[in-house]
Design brief:
Number of strands: 24
Protein name: Kinesin-like protein
CATH topology of the largest domain: Kinesin
Distance between the termini: 83 Å
GO biological process, one term: mitotic spindle organization
CATH class of the largest domain: Alpha Beta
Pfam families: Kinesin
Structural class: alpha+beta
Strand content: 5-15%
Family: Belongs to the TRAFAC class myosin-kinesin ATPase superfamily. Kinesin family.
Keywords: ATP-binding, Microtubule, Motor protein, Nucleotide-binding, TPR repeat
Bound molecules: adenosine-5'-triphosphate
Length: about 800
């Protein structure tokens, strides 16, 4: 069992610099007591207790010998140790950890110590280093020259929830001299700058990791791995005093923020909080194992003497006092020898399935606390050895070394020996490994079959934790997209999230909702862009129930061309019409009786509305025809709303339905009556022409006067619609129709328009008269030139009242007219 180990806190007060005026505000009273003047009341003192306190006179060697060296020694027991320097800017952190040529700090001394150890010991030590910095919340490799195009390396978590920096390079060092050459060069890559408080201020947190790995041939032949992390944190800065510029301010705020998170992590650990905010900064994420984890930890608190730093000193010491309470649970790390390729594992799996033992001895890392280093932890370019990529286990759930915090012994205990324990471990992990092997087999099968992997197989390769994390990532983006109104992309992101977390039922339901919303949105935008001309009104279909999201009642619209408004369909229709178009195109108005008697086309029936919304009875513009658009019947419709419903059909149908409702509840009656009056109003507006007394009366211009000379005809582009139809019928009834007139002039009329209804024509004409080039162009068969022709004609000669006008006025060919009308059929 591992024992709890508190973080060791050592305090070091630097000497006054030549530029500073000495005072007695900070003094070391005893080996472990620091006295500091109270920043609020200088006559009073505050005392702080630490594991050790060093005054300005204490040299680097003493500190190393007393406090650092024992910790470095623990590496040789397969432990991880972290030493980090903390303090305000200019307090002496870099001096302590790095030192100078004349006064080498912890790093050179520790490395010297490690190489000496290597020479003394019989073991063949494999020593490697990694060196990186966290600059403005991004991780950069210091062993490589700085590449300004990179945005930093990612911090990841492996299957055993161990933190590592992916893609970091690693260098093997055989001697101190070799290390020194690499380290000096790499230190040059670290970002430093001159500030008002320190001429050579570190602008980043720098982390040097030394890894020592060796094989203990005297015992069970176990390979051990010890690590030492030496961290020079950037100092907190009071920007009122540093007078930093813009760049320095950005660095400073990143530094202060990460140090603030460090404080929060310590606070959370001390209060036993369920959430430790390691993830809130890169620095705390990397220090995770050293703060409440499985590393041994030591914090060197650097203090600048003098009254002007008193407030900072107090803050630093208060934080250090809290940090003393943080408890780590250090464990030793054992490296398992075999490095298994996917093929090895597969081979082993097959052997295990067949009841055979694999050729090589297997120790599988598993159980709580077991560690496995990811292969991508090491940069492929680096000189990492296969041994480094071996499976690394801690003594969590597996045989582990006894953990003695002071000077732990270097031999594995009996539990490390192969035999019964190993078999037990194998048994314990066999089910997990079988599952992994099955996955490997599935992947191999896929690979042998095709060059691409199924996404489901790839997802299957992830650990549950990774799946959850990935799913959360997708979800986050999806929510942002949804909030931004991009439903289509949001849906795709939600679907991705569901792939990784298929168990999320709520997510599934949400996706379904979103799909419905999207469908609805598409339908609406289709109607809006192509006009309701693409929509046919029909009676309620048998078996169809109103959608919950329908805007209003049973003016049932069937999306005809709305969903496929492309030219293809119209072209097909034009190419193979059900009936060949007559040439020249016949005029319908010579058959007034037939036209007026003709029942509305079966496919174009306005059903009685139960819930009809009326938008603005009469607009000031004077446009007052009824129309159907987006499932609404409206008065005073705009030119964007070109589909027109026959008012009389509409009204009579409503009346029929009202008659059939013999027994209805009072409320229902009231509603229906209201609708009835609306319908009556609609009928009035549609059927009764405006007279000069009406508010929306538009006086006709001389050239627009009706042929009868009685009914004032409105000449508002796009306003023909039903009103035009009604008017036409009235004219027909009066026996003086335009068509008859044309007939007298020698144009051959025909009985009706064949397959096209009045409404279809009205819609087409209304669209054309709207004089909106874009909309007109949407009509199949009309190009830009034709559209402009129409526009000019409508402008000069007024609205086109009948399809025959297209032929006579614009010289449109019958085929073209047919194509236009087919859009509305
Ligand atoms: N113990 C010491 N003995 C002599 N000089 C020291 C000592 N500690 C610090 N100094 C000097 O104080 C100055 C500031 O020290 P240093 O650069 O190490 O501060 P720092 O805490 O790393 O600052 P920053 O956070 O800005 O990087 C340096 O000139 C350094 O040589």
């Amino acid at each position: 069992m591992s024992t709890g180990h508190k973080i060791k806190v050592v305090c070091r007060v630097r000497p006054f610099l030549k530029t500073e005026k000495p005072d007695t505000s900070v003094e070391v009273e005893a080996n472990n007591v620091l006295r500091v003047s109270n920043p609020r009341d200088h006559t009073k003192d505050v005392k702080f207790n630490f594991d050790s306190c060093y005054g300005p006179e204490i040299d680097q060697a003493t500190i190393y010998r007393n406090d650092v060296r024992p910790l470095v020694e623990t590496m040789f027991s397969g432990m991880s140790a972290t030493i980090f320097c903390y303090g305000v800017t200019g307090a002496g952190k870099t001096h302590t950890i790095q030192g100078s040529d004349t006064e080498p700090g912890i790093i050179p001394r520790a490395l010297e110590h490690i190489f000496m150890h290597q020479q003394r010991d019989p073991y063949d030590y494999d020593i490697r280093i990694r060196y990186y910095e966290i600059y403005k919340e991004a991780v950069f490799d210091l062993l490589k020259p700085h590449d300004p195009t990179t945005s930093g390396l990612p911090i990841r978590e492996d299957a055993q929830r161990k933190i590592f920096v992916a893609g970091l390079s690693e260098k093997r060092v055989a001697s101190y001299e070799q290390f020194d050459a690499i380290y000096q060069k790499a230190s040059g890559n670290r970002r430093t700058a001159s500030t008002k408080l320190n001429n050579h201020s570190s602008r980043s947190h720098a982390i040097l990791t030394v890894q020592v790995q060796w094989r203990d041939d005297t015992g069970a032949g176990t390979t051990w791995c010890g690590r030492l992390h030496l961290i020079d944190l950037a100092g907190s800065e009071d920007n009122r005093r540093t007078e930093n510029g813009k760049d320095r301010m950005a660095e400073s705020s990143a530094i202060n923020r990460s140090l603030f998170v460090l404080g929060q992590v310590v606070e959370a650990l001390n209060t036993g909080s369920s959430r430790i905010p390691y993830r809130d900064s890169k620095m705390t994420r990397i220090l995770q194992d050293s703060l409440g984890g499985e590393s041994l930890g030591m914090m060197i608190v650097n203090v600048a003497p003098g009254e002007r730093f008193l407030q900072d000193t107090n803050n630093t010491l208060n934080f250090a006092t809290k940090s003393r309470l943080v408890v780590n649970k250090p464990v030793a790390h054992e490296v398992v020898e075999q490095r298994w390729s996917a093929a090895d594992r597969l081979q082993h799996h097959r052997g295990a399935l067949a009841g055979r033992q694999p050729k090589s001895t297997l120790v599988v890392a598993s159980g709580p606390g077991a560690k496995r280093r990811r292969s991508d932890e090491v940069d492929p370019d680096s000189d990492a050895s296969p041994g480094c990529r071996a499976m690394l286990t801690s003594s969590g759930g597996l045989p582990r070394r006894p953990v003695a915090v002071a000077r732990p012994g270097r031999h594995s205990d009996s539990s490390c020996k192969p035999g019964a324990v190993q078999r037990a471990v194998e048994q314990k992990t066999s089910s997990a490994s079988n599952e992994i092997m099955e996955r490997v087999m599935r992947i191999e099968q896929q690979l042998s079959g095709s060059s691409r992997l199924d996404s489901s197989v790839v997802i299957d390769m992830f650990t549950p934790a990774t799946k959850l994390k990935t799913s959360r990532g997708w979800l986050k983006h999806a929510r942002e997209l949804e909030q931004g109104g991009d439903l289509e992309k949001a849906l795709a992101h939600y679907e991705e999230a569901l792939k990784y977390a298929p168990e999320l039922n709520k997510l599934e339901a949400h996706i379904e909702k979103l799909r419905v919303r999207l469908r609805r949105q598409k339908r609406r935008s289709s109607i809006a862009s192509h006009g309701a001309a693409n929509v046919r009104v029909a009676d309620q279909l048998p078996g169809r129930k109103p959608d919950d999201d329908d805007d209003c009642g049973p003016l049932w619209l069937i999306d005809g061309l709305a969903e496929s408004p492309g030219a293809e369909k119209a072209k097909r229709r034009a190419a193979h019409p059900a009936k060949p178009a007559p040439k020249p195109l016949a005029l319908p108005s010579t058959q007034p009786a037939a036209a007026s008697k003709a029942a509305p086309s079966k496919s174009v029936v306005a059903a009685a509305p139960k819930r009809v919304k009326l938008a603005g009875a009469r607009k000031a513009s004077g446009v007052t025809e009824g129309s159907v658009h987006d499932r609404r019947v409206s008065f005073g419709s705009s030119i964007l709303n070109p589909f027109v419903v026959g008012g009389s059909d509409f009204d009579s149908d409503l009346q029929d339905r009202l008659d059939r409702k013999a027994v209805v509840s009072a409320a229902r009656t009231k509603r229906l009556e209201a609708k009835s009056s609306v319908a009556a109003r609609l009928n009035r507006v549609l059927a009764v022409p405006r007279t000069p007394g009406d508010r929306d009366y538009v006086p006709p211009s001389s050239d627009q006067e009706s042929d009868s000379g009685v009914v004032p005809r409105r000449r508002v582009p796009g306003a023909l619609g039903v009103r035009g139809l009604v008017e036409q019928r009235r004219q027909q009834a009066a026996g003086d129709t335009r068509a008859q007139k044309q007939s007298r002039e020698g144009v051959d009329p025909v009985a009706d328009l064949g397959q096209f209804s009045d409404i279809c024509q009205a819609s087409a004409l209304q669209m054309i008269n709207s004089a909106d080039v874009k909309k007109i162009m949407k009509l199949q068969g009309i190009g830009k030139r034709r559209a402009e022709q129409i526009q000019a004609s409508v402008k000069e000669e007024g609205p086109i009242l009948h399809v025959c006008d297209l032929q006579t006025r614009l010289h449109f060919k019958g085929k073209l007219i047919l194509a236009i009308l087919s859009t509305f059929a």
